[in-house]
């Protein structure tokens, strides 16, 4: 057994030694292979490095050669430029010498000319003296005698010729003017409608008249108080009339009455709401009327301020001697543009100036001064040019200073002179009512004043905080005396002073 163990141990030791030796052999073999690979990689890297160095050297040599070549080219170009500059300098020097020589020659010529002129002047003076000695007259006397003889010989012929030329020229100009004006009038023909001072409102039944009047007349008094018109309720079936010189007031009253009739609720509170709503709707209509006028004439709406458009729309409810002012302004603008086209004037200035020439009439009730000056200030305020603003004044001047002003003045006369376009009586009537209201509102404490009954009565509403009952009597007398002393009117005028106190409280 021991022998077997010994043999086993010896075999084991031998096996381990042999395995270790084999392992060492394999490791050495692997290391030798790795070293070979490393040497091969190093050799390849060295070869690549040498190749890259060679390529870099070749590229650097090429770059150096190109740089030298470019430098040579640039030097050549610089030399060429320098040579051209030298040639130009030589040319300039030559031209400068030539100019100096010419200037010297010119100076010599000027000196010679001055000397020659001086000699000529001396010779002229000597000749004049000799001629005066021979003729026995001075130069001034000879010229005067010659002119006098020519004038006497030609005076009659010149006078007759001038008269003939003036007559022919005036006749030709008048014929041209008639032809151009007639052409403009024929191209634009519009209807002529004279406005009246009454407006009718249709009723569904005669029973509605009583509801409009209200208990003890409170409804009709409220309407008249709020609108400043007179409601005429007579025996005419199915109709009531609204009387008042202001078309805007009549329109407000008419629309308010129509709305109340359609609603069916008629009492003072509802009347006040309806009138306020009618005023708002009328303001919208005024804006639309102004825009329609601009569209008709081809003027861009965006070029006009919206406030000015509303002011222009107010002319729809303004009359001048019975003629609607907005329609009149459109006519003037159209005719002015046509005449300007014929004469070669500024069509835009004539057309726009003609449209706004009476813009002052839209607010002349609320502002002091004549409507031409008011219109000029309004147009100036809204940024119009001086030529356009001048059209408001030019159509009332005897001799406008611009051709456009003359054209607008002529177009204004053409529009106003159409048969049936204007009525003096209506304008005088409206003016009298306006003066009547202005007289009443000139007193302190007066809130509103409305002329009614065709100017036979004026109702004055006062502020109750400023005017008491006793002062109301004195105010009525003072207004009546001022009307008697300042205004002219037929018959008599009744002055009614109304003092009303309203106290409003809410139960919550």
In short:
The protein has 508 residues and is mainly α. It is 70% helix and 7% strand.
Topology:
Layout: H1 2-135, H2 139-187, E1 198-202, H3 207-213, H4 218-227, E2 230-232, E3 239-243, H5 247-263, H6 268-297, H7 306-314, E4 319-320, E5 323-324, H8 325-343, H9 347-355, H10 371-381, H11 386-394, H12 403-416, H13 424-441, E6 446-452, E7 457-462, H14 469-486, E8 494-499
Parallel strand pairs: 7-8
Antiparallel strand pairs: 1-3, 2-3, 4-5, 6-7
Helix pairs in contact: 2-8, 4-6, 5-6, 6-7, 8-9, 8-12, 9-11, 9-12, 10-11, 11-12
Structure characterization notes:
The structure is a single chain. Among the domains are: 137-186; 425-508, Alpha-Beta Plaits (2-Layer Sandwich), CATH 3.30.70. The radius of gyration is 54 Å and the shape is flat. The N and C termini lie far apart (131 Å). The protein has 14 helices and 8 strands. The chain has helices at 2-135, 139-187, 207-213, 218-227, 247-263, 268-297, 306-314, 325-343, 347-355, 371-381, 386-394, 403-416, 424-441, 469-486, and strands spanning 198-202, 230-232, 239-243, 319-320, 323-324, 446-452, 457-462, 494-499. Helix content is 70%, strand content 7%. The chain has 508 residues and is mainly alpha-helical.
